[in-house]
Design brief:
This protein has 297 residues and is mainly alpha-helical. The chain is built from 12 helices and no strands. The longest helix is centred in the middle third of the chain and has 37 residues. The relative contact order is 0.15.
Length: 297
Amino acid sequence: MTLTKLRLPRSLNVLRHSSLSVQMMWAGIVITALFVAIALLTPAFQSWGWLQDPLDSLSNPIHEPPSAAHWFGTSREGYDVFSRTLFGSRMALLVVVLATVISVAIGVPLGMLSGYLGGRLDRVLLFLMDTIYTLPGLLLSVTLAFVVGRGVVNAAIALSIAYIPQYYRVVRNHTVSVKTELFVEAAQSMGATTWRVLSRYLFFNVIQSVPVLFTLNAADAALTLGGLGFLGLGLPDQTPEWGADLRQALDALPTGIWWTALFPGLALTSLVVGLSLVGEGLNEFINPLLRRENWKN
């Protein structure tokens, strides 16, 4: 009995390739997975007594530098910076995932319907989405945050509106090109309904770029959420949130209190970098032209 060399499918060869893009993708996956693990485990750590209550400001001294008792020091209000930084990852991921899921759930169906049906619906939706797309994302999120108010769901809604046009444009353009293929015309000639054509014959052919957009938009959403928190428009007061903690730490920086700004800032930067690296790596994995250009099978 002879052993044969295990060969991965051509679409999975990227998993064993050592190109720079793939290495960056694995680094991004590790960073993102670390934040996901922290977000999931922080409540358990608190219940086991390993973390202080992030809302407890009475049992700690104010502006204590990093020490064995408080690894990241304490803030001006007496909050433990280490606890708030870890719990901040939980709130950031919750809002970011919710915002991107809302964007996908609205942008993808609208793009498919617009590209497949065409006509007046396509023109109206295209005009509306292009108008939203021209607005700066942060400005649009700030304006919507004023309207809907503060909160996890409200912040997610304020963030998601800016990303819906991106999914719409990408999916619509793919749908316009795919709907003229022979297999779609054959399905139509056999009496397939619009829903059947969209769900069975078009959906999996037009969403190749959605995972890349999802991760890149998640990175941008995390950064925008930090901006909303810094402006006081993100989550409610006292909620562990990196942007709000950075705003509170701003006044203390000239006095040499550096730790209240350093650790939340590093956490926000690391999450954004991790999600961005995953998106760039997925772009090479999904795009066959980039695969052929950057490495050979």
